[in-house]
Sequence to fold (307 residues):
Amino acid sequence: MPWDWWLSPWALGVLGLCVGSFLNVVVYRTPRILVRQWSREAAEILTSHEEVASTQAVSATEAKDLAKRAQALLDGLDRQPPYSLARPRSACPSCGHALAWHENLPLLGWLRLAGRCSACGTRISARYPLVELSTGLLFAAVGWHMGALPVALLWCGFVALLLAASLVDWDTTLLPDTFTLNLLWAGLVAAGLGWTLPLNDALWGVVGAAVGLGGISKGWKWLRGFEGMAMGDVKLLAALGAWLGWQMLLPIVLLASAVGAIVGIGMKLSGALREGRYVPFGPFLAGAALVVMFAGQNRVLHWLGWA
Fold:
């Protein structure tokens, strides 16, 4: 079939449904994979009781006790079955029922099961089909916006990574380097190959985010004793600069801050704020980036009166 069909909004929308199903796995498992990885790394350090004792934070006796506990943790991790994005198969978190292929069909599987596990009847969160539907709609929107060009697939990948990073950040307040740095390097490579924007704009987008937002975060820590923004947000903005250019950094930050403030106030008034009383900023940066991407640089600058 011609590329016009394969890259049409309809075809990309169907692709988005399938990718959205995979994103559900990525969002659920990535934080758990990272916790296992960090636990192993921390335990490996603590098993060296001489080095731990040399910090003088604990006594030699306490360091040896920590080493024994750390070794027990390592042994426990070694006994765990393999856990990755591919293994084990998707299963009901309540009863462990492994999902059949037809139960894993994007959107249709959830509708066919009426939102409940076929084995135990436990309700399945509506977020799963909503993520699939959102990804499908975003991919279709990219196809409509970019036209039937191969570069549309590149921007679909950009959208998918943004969505996954936003959901993980919302759930855990973590923005893993797995998302942010890969997105950053992909943006620079795409610009270098002439697929997106001039390489100079992409490079200055990265530098502008690192110096601007990173400097504000460090300055806030110097003045107040704590960072005003996590470095994951800085890395995410740098990645957005690599894809959208330095000109879009300020519009993205302004829009994300305005919407984030409104949501934060609403959550505070409703008592929905999580422990620590703050709202993750990553999802609002990602949302603002999507607005800027679909609106286009000229239109955004015109809205702000800069063009």
Notes: The chain is about 70% helix and 0% strand. The radius of gyration is 22 Å.
